[in-house]
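User: Hi! I have a protein structure encoded as tokens and I'd like to know what sequence might fold into it. I'm fairly new to this, so please keep things simple.
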């Protein structure tokens, strides 16, 4: 997916709160830090300690967009795709 030049935004639906947030933060910082000008990552978190998971992603300093619901995540991933495409 990361090598596809047509991908502009990725939506991830995580049911793991802190564990999921920590995993995505680690993966994004290792593999995709250079990709942030090419596409955006939108993460919808659910599960145990979701507030702490959002804090982990927000405090990471990485351009990861979070969402509370799947509908909100869908709206944000479309908006993120359009912003990257326009840039």
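Assistant: Happy to help. Inverse folding works backwards from shape to sequence: for each of the 87 positions I chose a residue that suits the local structure. Here it is:
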């Amino acid at each position: 997916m990361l090598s596809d030049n047509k991908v502009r935004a990725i939506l991830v639906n995580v049911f793991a709160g802190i564990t999921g947030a920590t995993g995505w933060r680690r993966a994004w910082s290792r593999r995709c830090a250079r990709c942030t000008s090419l596409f955006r990552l939108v993460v919808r978190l659910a599960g145990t300690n979701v507030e702490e998971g959002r804090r982990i992603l927000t405090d990471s300093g990485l351009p990861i967009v979070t969402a509370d619901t799947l509908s909100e995540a869908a709206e944000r991933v479309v908006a993120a795709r359009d912003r990257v495409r326009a840039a």
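A useful reference point when you look it over: The chain is about 50% helix and 20% strand. Feel free to ask if any position seems puzzling.
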